[in-house]
Amino acid sequence: MTTTTDLVSYEDALASYDPVMGLEVHVELGTNTKMFCGCSTALGAEPNTQTCPICLGMPGALPVVNATGVESAIRIGLALNCEIAEWCRFARKNYFYPDMPKNFQTSQYDEPIAFDGYLDVQLEDGETFRVEIERAHMEEDTGKSTHVGGATGRIHGASHSLLDYNRAGIPLIEIVTKPIEGAGERAPEVARAYVRELRELIRALGVSEARMDKGQMRCDVNLSLRPHGREKFGTRSETKNVNSLRSVERAARFEIQRHAAVLSSGGTIVQETRHFHEDTGSTTSGRVKEEAEDYRYFPEPDLVPVAPSREWVEEIRASLPEMPLARRNRLREEWGVSGTDMQAILNAGTLDLIVETIDAGADAASARKWWMGELARSANESGVAPEQLPITPAQVARVSELVAKGELNDKLARQVIEGVLAGEGAPDEVVEKRGLKVVSDEGALGAAVDEAIAGNPGVADKIRGGKVAAAGALVGAVMKATRGQADAARVKELILEKLGVTEG
Amino acid sequence: MPGITREEVAHLARLARLELKPEELDHFAGQLDDIIGAVARVSEVADQDVPPTSHPLPLTNVMRADEVRPSLTPEQALSGAPAQEQQRFKVPQILGEEQ
């Protein structure tokens, strides 16, 4: 980037202006097949091995909608508290661009399958913010372009482009919010919390893994500013393909600062698409919209209308899982933790793991302690998600059980976890191989020694008086108490140490 | 029914990526006007109580199960492509209108 963008400080921007946001999120469904044909949706296939006459737009090929795709759309709609259309159609969105071989994208226009809903999201401090949902509609993904001959794969300066249509036709659900007003300085945080809550929801519904890093969930951030007290919205910019939670927040924040700089210097905002840059956290101008886009939408004649029966809709509603926010609130109460703790658990991505560990028999406190302590740290250090660590919730639960039984203390348990992570086997194997019995632990041994001293005051006095040989009696007592599982030499050292005597 | 203007034809031509000469704009404006006029006669018989028809067949909810069917081989898929490279469809330079 050769030009720098003028920005005002975030505080100054908010002092003069009120941000209004609109968020558009595309979710790639995890169906086996594409939206309108039976081609596989598996990732990572060789180019153009998952296409057919339908998704290639061959003349005469007739699409048929994927029933699971429709059901997933309804599930998402219901979970977002939307109404479900009694009758709706697909529409052709016409445009000339080689990422769709048909020269149109099959989408929905003025008859979305789901509309008028909301999603409650929770901010860092526990405050709840309601984001109104305008609509959720069904459409299809586009092919993947590779631009050749230009600098670093950019389209500008490219001599030609190469198209792989494996992705063309994969089901997408586009979820559009109503204008988000009243978030004020917390607008970027609301944007992030919304996308995160939506991701949790999509995963809970089981309709997609919603991995932003894999492009399964992508967000466009539309933002405008208006002077405080004015009702009319300002001109918006549309920042496309913001593909991580952190980026959603940064993009909104950057655009607030950029808009404010333009407006406060007497300029006007150009309605345009903008590109977000992960490295700098900034946006740059993309395509200026000189006029309203003319996609010449019209009802798709090759697909008949979708008219979900009310029975089917109610059946789907009855099968919805507990919603993530409600679940978190329930667990928070059950576990007796604060909202901040719960937020930290969510951020660390350990919520499900903790639940599974508890289900495997651990108590809530220790499950939480391990996953938020040792294991979160270990995942962080090795740069993997906690669920990718080579330890299962059942194994963590076993460690926790050994601690509860008194066979391990914290320090030993940490070593057991360390051993499991290092691939030394299941917790019991690690205990065995490393000889991690609680009695070999200093603290536990110390306690046993203390007991032996207290129980034999006469012997202790003799030792204090210099009869080091008398220590043997105390060693015997400790060995008896630990059922022979202590290191006798170490026990003797401890006894002498505690009684303030040095050997010979 | 207002006539189709030269500007409207130019706009349509741009959307369809057709390069039209000035005289063609006039020519097509007249022709399109005739066509639109003919189609518009439908509205003379279609009253408010007749909903617009998008599908002549009284069918809804035609769906298929989410089961994978065989795809084309890449050779078959690419057999009609004017140009290909790296098992991909090769298309001419995209004129930077969208990034």
From TrEMBL, chain A:
Enzyme class: ligase
Catalysed reactions, as listed in the record: L-aspartyl-tRNA(Asn) + L-glutamine + ATP + H2O = L-asparaginyl-tRNA(Asn) + L-glutamate + ADP + phosphate + 2 H(+); L-glutamyl-tRNA(Gln) + L-glutamine + ATP + H2O = L-glutaminyl-tRNA(Gln) + L-glutamate + ADP + phosphate + H(+)
One Pfam family cited in the UniProt record for this chain: GatB_N
Originating organism: Streptomyces fragilis
PANTHER family documented for this protein: GLUTAMYL-TRNA GLN AMIDOTRANSFERASE SUBUNIT B MITOCHONDRIAL AND PROKARYOTIC PET112-RELATED, GLUTAMYL-TRNA(GLN) AMIDOTRANSFERASE SUBUNIT B, MITOCHONDRIAL
NCBIfam families: gatB, PRK05477.1-2, PRK05477.1-3, PRK05477.1-4
EC numbers on record: 6.3.5.-
Asn/Gln amidotransferase domain boundaries: 352-499
Gene3D superfamilies for this protein: 1.10.10.410
Protein's recorded name: Aspartyl/glutamyl-tRNA(Asn/Gln) amidotransferase subunit B
From TrEMBL, chain B:
Stored Pfam families: GatC
Chain ranges passing through the membrane: none
Annotated region described as Disordered, given as residue ranges: 70-99
Domain of life: Bacteria
Catalytic activity: L-glutamyl-tRNA(Gln) + L-glutamine + ATP + H2O = L-glutaminyl-tRNA(Gln) + L-glutamate + ADP + phosphate + H(+); L-aspartyl-tRNA(Asn) + L-glutamine + ATP + H2O = L-asparaginyl-tRNA(Asn) + L-glutamate + ADP + phosphate + 2 H(+)
The enzyme's E.C. designation: 6.3.5.-
Stored InterPro entries: Asp/Glu-ADT_sf_sub_c (IPR036113), GatC (IPR003837)
Keywords: ATP-binding, Ligase, Nucleotide-binding, Protein biosynthesis
HAMAP family: GatC (MF_00122)
Family per record: Belongs to the GatC family.
Function: Allows the formation of correctly charged Asn-tRNA(Asn) or Gln-tRNA(Gln) through the transamidation of misacylated Asp-tRNA(Asn) or Glu-tRNA(Gln) in organisms which lack either or both of asparaginyl-tRNA or glutaminyl-tRNA synthetases. The reaction takes place in the presence of glutamine and ATP through an activated phospho-Asp-tRNA(Asn) or phospho-Glu-tRNA(Gln).
Subunit structure comment from the entry: Heterotrimer of A, B and C subunits.
Name of the protein: Aspartyl/glutamyl-tRNA(Asn/Gln) amidotransferase subunit C
